[in-house]
Write a structure and sequence with these properties.
Blueprint lengths: L5 H5 L4 E5 L18 E2 L2 E2 H4 L2 H6 L1 H17 L4 H8 L6 E5 L5 H5 L4 E3 L2 E8 L5 E3 L17 E5 L8 H12 L3 E5 L11 H7 L3 E5 L12 E3 L3 H13 L1
Parallel strand pairs: 1-4, 1-9, 4-5, 9-10, 10-11
Antiparallel strand pairs: 2-3, 6-7, 6-8
The structure holds ligand BJW and zinc ion (ZN).
Zinc ion binds next to loops.
Length: 239
Amino acid sequence: MFGPVADRLRQAEKIVFVTGAGISQESGIPTFRGKDGFWRKYDAMKLATIDAFYENPKLVWEWYEERRTNILAAKPNPGHLAMAELEKYRPVHVLTQNIDGMHQRAGSTKVYELHGSIITIKCTVCDFKDIIVTGFSELPPICKCGNILRPDVVWFGESLPQDVWHAAMQQASSCDVMIVVGTSLAVSPANLLPAYARQNGAIVIEVNPEETPMSTSMSLSIRSSAAKALPDLLTVFQR
Ligand code: BJW
Ligand code: ZN
């Protein structure tokens, strides 16, 4: 399966994963683009914007509440679990665009949440930030200061949390193996991370049943699902 890159994989000194919605697809969490990318009749990509939120905060909150319920009921799949187990064999860093917390639940210890987290909320105005422990009696929830609370996630047109982004760039620029799993690589700046790895001379492997805009520059594209391919990848290090 790993043919030309098998040796480079085995010799890896630092493995960095870049993950997207596709890794959680087999846990029953829908992806954004493609046939999964609609919620009720709304285009998920149009809801994930600050403009949509201010236009209709209740609607956007309903979307997040429904997703949060689904995510909390879901379980990490063999793909997440294989990545966590890989830490037994090599230093592993996980740069994820996902907000679902599945990597941490699977046991990965170095996870960089580029787009925030669905289990935290923050105020749109003051510094208040907290973990959601119960549901809300009314949507949108209101902060003690009187302003609207929002999910602590990164929407289009917003900056990534700078400390997380800097750490992610640094990990990408210093790895010798990067594995890009379940992302369409359509969204920047996360889609720049493979280029940072390549600049460092790393091999970059993609796990995705579909082609992506960067498939042609990959060292290897594994056209399979994450839950199938990642346990196979783990066996390379278990021998
Ligand atoms: C499987 C599988 C299986 C399926 N196994 N694989 C013009 C105007 C304004 C901004 C821009 C602009 N042009 C560019 C920009 C920048 C913009 C951007 O990139 N836009 C593009 C869409 C054009 N980016 C931003 O705005 C970012 N911020 C930024 O750049 O700041 C600087 C700035 C400031 C001001 C102005 C301009 C720039 C922020 C991006 C935030 C993205 N946020 C979201 C929502 C997060 C919260 C939430 O989850 O609700 O992040 S959008 C959504 O897309 C989410 C995802 O993390 C992200 C990426 O999606 P992902 O993970 O790749 O999922 P899919 O669905 O696309 O792909 C799934 C893949 O899995 C597919 O390939 C399948 O084949 C595969 N798959 N099953 C393995 N079983
Ligand atoms: Zn507030």
